Fold UPF0102 protein SAMN05660420_01547.
Amino acid sequence: MSQARLALGAWGEDRAAEYLRLQGMKILKRNYRTPVGEIDIIAQNKKYLLFVEVKTRRGVTFGSPQEAVGIRKQRQIIRTCQWYLQEHKCGKLQPRFDVVAVLSAGNGNVQITHLDDAFSLST
């Protein structure tokens, strides 16, 4: 992956984490890596433990950012979530899988779309 794409992805994850904080969520982990995969952001609110995939784009030429989270990626996130749940005590928090799409308009404007419960464990 090119340095420009890595930088864009990191920039988008920063925007997404700040957005989630402003929505009252506590960020627990960023870029959580295991042998089975990676999760961009793990956050929590009063009821849920959120496993968040962040997709960042400069435009929609190749589809919206959230369209890039296909079934294969969903399954990888679920496996990584299961790994996390085995390592950490999460109390009564219910796992939830969200997608945060960050679209950079190039003129400094940023559009963030948050898809709550974007997919489920049965995916």
About this structure: The first strand starts at residue 26 and ends at 34. The domain at 3-119 is CATH 3.40.1350.10 (Trna Endonuclease; Chain: A, domain 1). The radius of gyration is 14 Å. DSSP finds two helices and five strands in the chain.
